[in-house]
Structures are given as structure tokens and as C-alpha cells.
Amino acid sequence: RPQGKYIVWSRIDQKSCFKAIGAAGLIPIVVELKPIEGTDAIGTDVEGIRAAIEKVGADEVLCIASTTSTFAPRVPDFVDEIAILADKLKVPHVINNAYGL
Questions:
Q1: How far is CA 73 from CA 26, 41, 48, 78, in A?
Q2: I need a surface site. Which of 11, 16, 37, 83 has the fewest CB within 10 A?
Q3: Are 72 and 41 in contact (CB under 8 A)?
Q4: pTM here?
Q5: Quick one: CA torsion of 85, 8, 45, 57, rounded to 10 degrees?
């Protein structure tokens, strides 16, 4: 994706991914989390990710960055749902599994 300059990033409080995006000269599009109905948790806004990609155009998005490593009240990203969206929109999906098993 030589024309890709945006990283659509499902927000986490760990800053290393965010800093790496900037250090690479790329532009983060931060998608805020949303409350998960019936719980005290917050999680992935998959529709927010879709909207962010559609706003700038899929060809301009280098990848979607998601994570499995989180701290309460945030739950891990819904990587299966994001992967389905990424495949549909033909956008690469990078999953940060730091501290994962």
C-alpha cells in the first residue's frame, strides 16, 4: 500500500503503538471505544472503524491496528469482527498481541 498514510487505531491507553505510528511518519485515526451493553466494560467500535476507513478511503489506509492486550474496564478488541471488516474493505489488519498467549 504505497499510498497508505493512515492507521485506523482502536484506542488503547498503552502509548507505544500510538508513538510508533507517529515515528513512522503515519497519521493515526483514533477510534474511541464504546460501552458494551449490559456490562461495565468498554470495547471496540467496529462501526466506528468502518466509518473512519470510508471517510478517508480504503486505499489511503495502511492498516487497521487492534490489540488483544488490555486493562479493565476495556476488553480486548473484537479481532474476529475487525478481520471480517478488513477483508470486506480490503484493508490489512495488524493485531498487537503483546503479553498474549
A1: 29, 5, 19, 15
A2: 37
A3: yes
A4: 0.91
A5: -60
